[in-house]
Design a protein that fits this description.
Elements lengths: L5 H17 L3 H16 L18 E7 L6 E7 L7 E2 L5 E7 L2 E8 L6 E9 L4 E4 L6 E6 L6 E7 L8 E4 L6 E4 L15 H5 L3
Antiparallel strand pairs: 1-2, 2-9, 3-10, 4-7, 4-9, 5-6, 5-8, 10-11
The structure holds fe (iii) ion (FE).
């Protein structure tokens, strides 16, 4: 099926304007960004198939776009049945929008005195649903495909080139953390810049 890549390009352009206007103000970014991301994930017609492929090994993180000065990045997370992340943090703001299937998200607080993690509980997101994370509002979570019989896909936006950020994985029982850098599952990104189809139709 031909994918409507215009939708991703429009999102990238709108989000770039938002980042320029927000001047790093996280609450502004969340307020307007949530609306843009919600609109993007409510239309499952644009993600190219190459960036929607699950792996039986582990969940996939495909970079879809990174801002030239690394102020934000857009990533598709593709979850095989039952796949799950470790407990982890981000160290920057992030927005998670479910586009296909369903996701379970368990959030944690770090108990400063004891140094251990306390679960805030688990909630489920269905298509169109958005979760927010950041060091300010709560940055530690564990995300899973809520479905055991099919693939789920979510689109994530972060306030950095997230695959190149040094952050942490936590042992859920002890709260002990170790540094990790996630990287990306593909060496290529989608081409959002070929406008030839829109320029030649109708001629
Ligand atoms: Fe996360």
């Amino acid at each position: 099926m031909m994918k409507n890549i215009t939708r991703l390009r429009d999102f990238v352009q709108s989000f770039t304007r938002l980042i320029e206007q927000a001047g790093g103000d996280e609450e502004n970014i969340f307020a307007d960004g949530e609306r843009l991301l919600s609109d993007l994930v409510s239309h499952d017609d644009w993600l190219p198939d190459d960036f929607a492929q699950p792996s039986s090994e582990r969940y996939q993180q495909y970079l879809l776009y990174c801002d030239p000065t690394e102020r934000f990045s857009v990533v598709s997370f593709v979850w095989g049945p039952g796949q799950t992340t470790p407990v982890h943090d981000h160290t920057v703001w992030g927005m998670v929008g479910v586009m296909r299937g369903a996701e379970a998200c368990e959030e944690f607080d770090l108990e400063p005195a004891a140094g251990c993690l306390r679960s805030r509980g688990t909630h489920q997101l269905s298509p169109g649903g958005i979760d927010l994370v950041s060091p300010r509002i709560g940055d530690i979570h564990k995300v899973s495909n809520a479905l055991t019989d099919r693939v789920s896909i979510s689109i994530h936006i972060y306030g950095a080139n997230i695959g190149a950020v040094k952050r942490h994985i936590y042992e859920s029982d002890t709260g002990r953390k170790k540094t990790f850098v996630s990287g990306y599952s593909s060496k290529v990104t989608p081409n959002i810049w070929d406008r030839s189809a829109e320029l030649t139709t109708g001629n």
